[in-house]
Write a structure and sequence with these properties.
Structural class: mainly beta
Oligomer: single chain
CATH topology of one domain: Histone H3 K4-specific methyltransferase SET7/9 N-terminal domain
Shape: flat
Helix content: under 10%
Order of helices and strands: EEEEEEEEEEEEEEEE
Radius of gyration: 18 Å
Largest sheet: 13 strands, mixed
Strand content: over 45%
Number of helices: 0
CATH superfamily of one domain: Histone H3 K4-specific methyltransferase SET7/9 N-terminal domain
Low-confidence stretches: 1-37
Mean pLDDT: 77
């Protein structure tokens, strides 16, 4: 897989009162050898001024937490999140092993809030789901790697609700399924 790096997507890192920015895009070639541009995992050494964390954050921690690993000879961020008094508050991002963005979410007082976007390994949008107070709530759209719609439906209280539509990768409707409180009904 051919990797070319260019500067262009804005990522804001905030730690206390100091702010540092970094911009980077990854260009990869998909299975059809078409170029796909996606956000690339930031270099761990370039974002400095942050605390290295593993799987937990102390109750009182405020700032940016991250985990890093070696990706193609460079120490890259695999995950980072902003914290306030030990709770996620702000943006959280994870990255695929190839360094492309896996998902991005916003947190308020430890709960996912608003739009969460998930990405395929190639960087193409995979799913957009809405969250309210930490639960899936509202419309959810899933996409195939070619960009065609894969699924469309609504969540209520964290469960699939109503009619969900599922599509073939080529685009036509495959089936409609009705859900009540997350359970398929006939």
């Amino acid at each position: 897989m051919r990797l070319l790096y260019t500067l262009s997507i804005f990522i804001l890192f905030s730690c206390g009162d100091s702010k540092q920015t970094q911009e980077e895009i990854l260009t990869v070639n998909d299975e059809n050898d078409a170029e796909v541009k996606t956000e690339q995992a930031p270099n761990c050494n370039e974002i400095g001024g942050v605390q290295e964390m593993e799987a937990w954050v102390p109750d009182s921690y405020t700032g940016l937490a991250k985990t890093c690993d070696e990706i193609e000879g460079v120490s890259r961020v695999l995950w980072y999140a902003t914290y306030s008094n030990g709770e996620k508050n702000g943006i959280e991002k994870t990255y695929h092993p190839n360094g492309s963005l896996h998902w991005v979410a916003n947190y308020i007082h430890g709960n996912r809030e608003g739009e969460v976007k998930y990405y395929h390994y190639t960087g193409e949008l995979k799913q957009i789901t809405q969250f309210i107070n930490g639960e899936e709530e509202g419309e959810s759209l899933g996409y195939w790697e070619n960009g065609n719609l894969r699924s469309k439906g609504v969540f209520r209280n964290g469960e699939k609700e109503g009619v969900w539509e599922y599509y073939y990768e080529e685009g036509p409707l495959k089936k409609k399924v009705t859900y009540k409180e997350g359970i398929e009904v006939r």
